[in-house]
Amino acid sequence: MAAENVEILTTAPVAEPAGHSCGCGGHDEADPVLDVRAIPHAIRHATVFGAFEAIAPGASLILVAPHLPRPLLAQLAERAPIETEVLIDGPEAWHVKITRVA
Q1: Model-level pTM?
Q2: b/e per residue, 78-89, with b = 16+ CB within 10 A?
Q3: Looking at per-residue confidence, does 47 or 28 come out higher?
Q4: For 21-55, b where at least 16 C-beta lie within 10 A, e where not — what string?
Q5: Neighbours of 62 (CB within 10 A)
Q6: For burial by CB atoms within 10 Å, which of 14, 48, 71, 97 has the most?
C-alpha cells in the first residue's frame, strides 16, 4: 500500500481574550448556530437546554428549527431571562436568535 502525502497545517497560538481563560484557543466571534432539524425529537429539547446553559449572560444562540419553537422558548424563559428575535420566519426553517439576558 502506497503512503499518501499528508499535509499538516498548524497555526500560531492565539492570545486569550481579556477575561477568557479556558485555554481552548478557539473563540467564536459570531453567535453559535444550533440546527436542531437533524436531532431526534426525543432529545431535541435537552440538546437545546445544554447549548443554552453553555452561553454566558449577554450572549446569544441562533436556533434553527423546522417550526417556530414556542413551547421550547417558554421552557427556556423559565430557566433564565431571555430575549428572542425571529430572524427567518419559515416556511422551511425558522431561525430564532435567543439572547440570555445579563
Answers
A1: 0.71
A2: eeeebebeeeee
A3: 47
A4: eeeeeeeeeeeeebebeeeeeeebbeebeeebeeb
A5: 17
A6: 48
